[in-house]
Each structure stands twice: as structure tokens, then as C-alpha cells.
Amino acid sequence: MPGDLRDGRIVIVGASLAGLRAAETLREKGFTGSLTVVGEEPHPPYDRPPLSKQVLLGMAAADTTGLPMRPGPPMSPDLPMRPGPPMRPGLPTRQPLDADWRLGVRATGLDLDGKRILLADGDSLPYDRLLIATGTRARPWPRPEQAALEGVLTLRTRDDAARLADRLAAGPRRVLVIGAGFTGSEIASACRERGLPVTVAERGTAPLVGALGGTLAKLATGLHRAHGVDLRCGVTVTDLRGDDSGRFTGADLSDGDRIDADLCVVALGAVRNVEWLADSGLAAGTHGVACDAGCRAFDMYGIVTDDVFVAGDVSRFPHPLFDYQMLSLEHWGNAVEQAEVAAHNMVTPEPRRRPHLAVPVFWSNQFGVNIKSVGVPTFSDQVVIAQGSLRDRRLVAVYGYRGRITAAVTVNMAKWLEHYQRLIETAAPFPPGPGAADGHPLVTEFPLPSDVPDPKGLSHGPTVALTGHLPDRRLTVVRPAG
Amino acid sequence: MAVDTLLERITDQANRPDPYPLYAELREAGVARQTDGSYLVGTYYDIVSLFHDPRLSSDRRNRAAPYRGLEAEEPEQMLPFIRLDDPEHHRLRSLATRPFGPPHSPDRIDSMRGEIAAITEELLASFHGRTRIDIVDDFAYPLPVTVICRLLGVPREDEPVFREWSGAIIDSVDIRPGEDPTERQRAGIQARAQMGRYLADLADQRRGRPGDDMLSAFVNDPDPAGALTHEELAATAVLLLVAGHETTVNLITNGVLTLLRHRDQLDRLRREPDLMPGAVEELLRYEPPVHMLQRTPLAHVDVAGTTIPKGVPVVLVLASGSRDPKRFRDPDRFDPARQDNRHLGFGSGIHICYGAPLARVEAQIALSALLPHLSTATLAEDPPPYRHSAVLRGPRHLPIEL
What we know:
heterodimer, A: alpha/beta, FAD/NAD(P)-binding domain, six-stranded antiparallel sheet, 30 strands, globular, B: alpha+beta, CATH 1.10.630.10, three-stranded antiparallel sheet, 16 helices
């Protein structure tokens, strides 16, 4: 055991929101050892939510979403300054976070035995403790030659957003968005706000159905239609077509229809960045890297590691409110909170470590409405409109699973979310009792099936998924049948 | 002493200068039923939880018969949004926000900074050559009144007229256990009707001849979705005029009083003027202008092990919640540099103070400009005489020697 947890070498792989928040927290908790942050992108940490909103509307440039950095504790003047990323312009000059930033270089492997990170440039980084925060990337169009057509884009990074914003500003004749999850829907919304014709193709029955269930997703269908989106649900895009010069010209749909468009955004959800861990022996699979409630990674045998921690979109962690199933989240708030817990635990002796128990929260702005969710709406069998109404597009939908409240989704009523979060945390009975000032008794007393679809039948990935109890999916594959 | 007399003691004028020991007693007692049947809640997390509970109504017409006053009989059209629930509250508040804040008028408050600073300088100029001033009459009252008059488009010289109405309206919502409220309520209803007519008439005069004030905006919004009815306009304008000056006066006055009681912090603010926004937040926590708000449960509601019955008044003691040691470290210390200061000074939830952005800017500008004058000033009376209201608590006068 290392003597002093506040000393030694810590490496964070992943230089986005979770990596940054962890680095800041480590310094705030008094970690004085060497801290290295490895990031594949050349940019210092930036914020992603505006990339599918303000940036696509041309209200902000893609390179203006840099995350502010909290400085570490005062450094003694004789310490050499480590190179840091530039501060965001316009902010008061602050002492930079004391960390060594290795940006623009990818981690390619992890040697648990030798306690080293292998980097794409051939270098390797020794560590005493490691935090994995490599997040996700956009799932590409599955056929590489079609994905390579000019005018076929994805949206995940700041560079992606800059490219897409430029294309939208150039005024395409029609935009095709494949996948109607949150990202696809926000892109479609931005297109309509810019007055661009847009077709959305979704294999599921409705936009957002993977996150909200079929009952509430009807509202999303209404939003798309009311804003003039050419919405095609229950279809798959079978082929992307291009002209002789390799420019995207349109797509074929499974129902035989053809869409003529000159810009295509593939919004098929996210892929976890776990390939670099394939030979590491960690429990890393398509749903992410499994860890315990204290953010410590499991190895492939389900044994918890001592020095390897996980946070953010790439993690899978057990949650007591959802039958201790492993949760896989792609949420801003989770990245922040889990990173803080992981960092705390990395520099804190065992008895004072904290569990990551935060209830999932996410939000989306699209078609002029704010949608916010707490809990796991897909962990439900029923849903009820507890406040407001579908007609006014202002409502609180409360989700229940076997008689207890497991989630709530607000549409333009986010100020009520706190109340429902408490009900979820205390496993309050479903449906919630009567008496809401803006409830409609005939509605609030009659829960409907929440109609959660099998995620396999969707174009978009759910941004929150329950992924079973097993730390490593690969072990389930080799189990003999029968 | 018995906890069921807490409300009587809190509202007793003798305790106005320092109600905080009573609030500590209240937090200790948990949810306390009072002799008049109402329930007091004074702990931070319970107050926040009730603010976000959709079963807690702001509409007094939902009170059970014995707690229903005259106001419960008023027609809906005359009620301002502060006393309504969603969806009506949302509709009216959104309409009222169109000329005041985002998304339609995001720069409104910011663009008033210069004007507020100029009004402040004018008032400060009148201090010249005087050795004794009353912070309330000479500064903290005229400043927000002038600002709200300019913002709404109300002639400043009419102040003596609406001051009287405003006083009657404030009296009508005060909490005075053991006193029959009927007369106060009758006077309040009458004052609201008169002030409403006065303001609606002013607005009517601007129909088709708009100025840059909010009354003009209300009657000239080209978007049919932005239209308030005549009654709605009257009720909204009354709310904004009353709330716009009956509260900020306390914030500024309490600020001066607190700074003169904490000279080290006063000196620190002079040295570090960037602390002023945080200092105003701390004032809103430490000596807030609004001490209590009332709600009515629409179902039996469990709070901290007590069931509050449907239809019974619940008094949320915000000023107590903001001093709750379970939420704030060292809560009785005035610390302008306090971190993590999510006080209850402006409430929370859907009714969170509409005018908060304006109140913040006014208090920041006013106190910053006053600081140089305060370094050699002393309180002529400590504690100063207080206004009667326990709900909108603040000094009636604050004489200081320059």
C-alpha cells in the first residue's frame, strides 16, 4: 500500500468533463503528487451540450465552449510551472490547474501488471493510481465507403460541431438526420429553427422512445411534426447514395422510399471508448468499464481493483435504486458527480471513501421546449401525467415500476423536478398521491403502460441503460448453454 | 416556552429587532402547530421540500373554512400571480416577464444600471453638509420607488397616493395571530382595487402611444399571445409596484445596519469591491427582507414526521431556514465571502422572486455607492425602530450620524 495517498503519480485518461473535474477535485483534496491528463483531442476540455444547440444555430462558435478550470491550491513559488492549456478568454486570470496535459495523443493500451499506460506516440506513462474517463464517440454509419461520402457527418466533438454548423449555415437543400434520440432531435430542431428542410429517419416508433418510453414519446412525435420535420418512424435507412465525385445525394429507406438530401447527420448513438482496454484484463465491454459504487474498476473475473478507477460516460456502475443493476449513462451531471467521487476515493483511505449514488439527471432543449429527466424512465412499467397536460406541452410525467416511483420527466416544468427526485430516492409509492395544484384528477389517477421498447429495435441509443448485474459481459458469452 | 406560541412570539413587535433566537427554537421544535391552527416550518431542507411540493398551493381560496379570510372570496381575475397556482400562475407570470426579463427582454435589467447609479448619486448628493440622515427616508425608500416608477411608467410625484394603498396592501397580508383580520383584509382589497384602477388607467393612456416602460409594453404587445386582460393587467401592475418597493427598501436598510454592525466587513468591502455581489447574497441570507411565506396544502402532507392537514395554513419561515446550521456553516456569522450560499431570501420553486434580478442590481449599486459614506458613520440608535410587519421585516427608520 502506498504510504501517503496524497502523493505519488496519478494518470487520468480522458480530458473532457469527467477528466477535468477529477483533476480539479484531486488538487482540491490535497493531492500534491504528479498528475497527468491524457486526451485524444488536441483541445483543452470543452463543454458538449452547446454543440448540438447554440453552436448549430450559429449563436456561438464551436471553439467557445471551453470549460472553465478551477485552480488548485496555491503552489509554492519555487515549483516549476507545468505547461497548461490556455485559459478561457475573458475570465479573470487564475492560477492554472497544476497538471501535465498530454493532449492530442491517444492511449492505446493498459498494462495492469507494469502499471503503465501505453500511448499512440510510443511513449508510456507509469502510474500509481489511474482514472479511466475516456467517454464515448459517435457511432459511425456502419458502411465505411458510404460514411466517407462528402456531406455525411456525425456530431460528438467540437470539430464535428464546427463542420456541421458551417454546413448548416451554407443552406443545404435538405438535411437527413438518421436516428431520433436526443442528439438527432436537437439537430433536427436546429435545422428547423434555421428554416432548413429536414427529414428524420428512426427505426423505433417515435423520437426519444428509447429514453422516454412509447407513451411520452408521442409528445416528441408531435413536436417534430408541429415544427415541420419530415419524420419517418418505423423505417431504417438502408443505403446512403453519392454522386460520381463522392458527394452525398440522398438515401434509400427500408419502405422503398428515397430521400434526396445534400447533408446527412448520422445520430445513431454513442460507442464507448474501451477498445484500448481490450487486452488489459479489465471488465471492459460495449456498455463500458464496470466499476463498484466507489468507482473502482472490476477486472474480467469480477474482482475489484485497488488502483484503477472509472468515471463518466465510459463507466458502468451498480445503483441501489435500480435493483443494483449496472447503469450506463451519457449525462453531463453524472460525469461531474462520478468524477468527484472517484477523485475523492483515489486520495482517501478506505473507511472514508464515498459511494456514487447520484440519481441520473439529464436535460434537452429542442423545438422550443425544455425536457428534463430524473431517475431512469426506462426502468418502469407505468407512467402517469402528475402535473400539467400534454395539450399545453407543459407536464410532469412520473414513471413507476412495480408500485414505486423510479423516474420523472418534465416538459417545460423543470422547477418541479426536485420534488420527484426525492420521491425516487425514497422509493415512494407509485402512482404519486393526489393533490397537485395543477393536476387533473381524471388523468393523475390513471397510469398508462410506459411502453418501454427493446433498445435493439431503435436507431438511437438510450442515453441511460440498465445493463444487468454482471461486471463483465464477455464472461456471459462463454457460459455453457443449458 | 411552549412551541405552539412561537408564531405569537415571532410576530410580537417586541421581538422584531431580533427574531433569530425564536427561529432557533422553531428549528429545534421541528414542524410546530400553533394555537391558531397553522403550522410553522423553519428548517432549510423542509422548507425547500415544501417549496417544490406540487400539493402546496399559493391560492388562499383553497383554505379550509375556519382559515379562510375575506380575500378567499375575491374574484379570480383580481388575483396577482403570486397568489395563484399553475397553470394560471405560469401564464400570467410569463406574460409579465415579457417586458422584464429573458427570453423576450434579456437586457432590461442590465440596461437600467446607469439609471440606477444616477438616481443613487442624486440621493447621495443630498447628504452633503448633513451630519445626521435617515437611511430609510433619505435613501433606501426613495431609491427603489424611483426605480420601480421609471420601470413601470408611474409618475414619481404620485408616490404619496400609492404609498397609502401600498401600506394597506402590506398590512392585509401580515400575519397577526389572535387578531381578527377582516378589517385589514377589507382595506387591502379596497386598496388593491383602487391602485389597480389607477395603474390600468395609466396603461390605457399609453395604448398606441408607447413609452419604454412596462405598462406601455403590456398594452402594446403586438403578439396576441402577450395580451393581458384589463383585470389581469391591474392585478399584475399592483403586484409589481408593491413588491418592487416594499422589499428592496428592507434589503438596502438591513444592509447598512448589518455593515455598521460589522465594521471589519465594511472595511473589507471597501478594500475588495468585487465582494459586493456575494455580500448582497449574504445579506439576503443573514437579514432577508421577507421572513415568511404562506402556503396551503391540498392534501395531507407529511413533513419531518408531522402530518399537516389539508387546507390548513403553513407558514414557511424563510429567514429561519437561511440560518439553519444543518445547511450553513456558522449560520449566525455575517460573511460576505461565504461560498455555497443557496439562501432562501428569494424563495425557491416556481414562485421564486420575480424581481430578484432587479433587487440584486439595486442593492449592489446602492450599497457600493454608500460604502465611502459609511466608514465614519455610526448608528444613532441600535436597534432601530422597526416596521410593524413580521413578514416584510425591516427598520422603519435608520438614523445614522455621519
